[in-house]
Design goal:
heterodimer; A: mainly beta; 11 strands; B: about 110 residues; mainly beta; 6-stranded mixed sheet; about 50% strand
């Protein structure tokens, strides 16, 4: 079966612009979570969606937002980009949510560079 | 708050030998899950192994085993018979009740021929 698909793989944006990243989970998975990975801060949780509802949110400014559609696909949006937003953004899908998750499948990530 | 500590920034191992990657965790939750992921240079996070907090036996998946010592709050990954393709970054992570994963800083493993 198809894995988690993230598009685009690479992105270069200018400071002040906004960007939308997409994540298609494994078929049947209803939970999607997003992570930011930088050399300095490591992997940090952004948010988690289950059945179109945001269930959990990390400690990021309001410029970072997301949503999930009825087909479980999720999008993440970052407005007013800053240089520090340059990172690898990883999406993970899982069958269950919360305590009932025994495995997360990650996509290949979107590498965002802000210039 | 949950915390994962990986104290080994880098590890070296000879091909075909076993290696242990250390992971300690801190949480006040009674129910949690512990994961190990491998991240090659391509960036994708590859799931290796899972251990639930109530599992009494150590998890094993092929060449990977998790040495779970609950009282010491440690969840070390043991890779047996290392292969060149095992060279990558390895992350230990914990899932709490909310479903969020907290990651350690990672250990870079280099396998020498």
């Amino acid at each position: 079966k198809a894995g988690v698909t993230q598009t685009p793989r690479y992105l270069i944006k200018t400071r002040g612009q906004q960007v939308t990243l997409s994540c298609s989970p494994i078929s049947g998975h209803r939970s999607v979570s997003w992570y930011q990975q930088t050399p300095g801060q490591g992997l940090q949780f952004l948010f988690e969606y289950f059945s179109e509802t945001q269930r959990n949110k990390g400690n990021f400014p309001g410029r970072f937002s997301g949503r999930q559609f009825s087909n479980s696909r999720s999008e993440m949006n970052v407005s007013t980009l800053e240089l520090g937003d340059s990172a690898l953004y990883l999406c993970a899908s899982s069958l269950g949510e919360g305590l009932y998750v025994y495995g997360y499948t990650f996509g290949s990530g979107t590498r965002l560079t802000v210039v | 708050a949950q915390k994962i500590t990986q104290t080994q920034p880098g590890m070296f191992v000879q091909e075909k030998e076993a290696v242990t990657l250390d992971c300690t965790y801190d949480t006040s939750d009674q129910s949690y899950g512990l994961f190990w992921y491998k991240q090659p240079s391509s960036g994708e996070m590859i799931f290796l192994i899972y251990q639930g907090s109530y599992d009494e036996q150590n998890a094993t998946e092929g060449r990977y085993s998790l040495n779970f010592q609950k009282a010491r709050k440690s969840a070390n990954l043991v890779i047996s018979a290392s292969q060149l393709g095992d060279s990558a970054m390895y992350f230990c992570a914990m899932r709490g009740p909310g479903g969020k994963l907290t990651f350690g800083q990672g250990t870079i493993l280099t396998v020498h021929p």
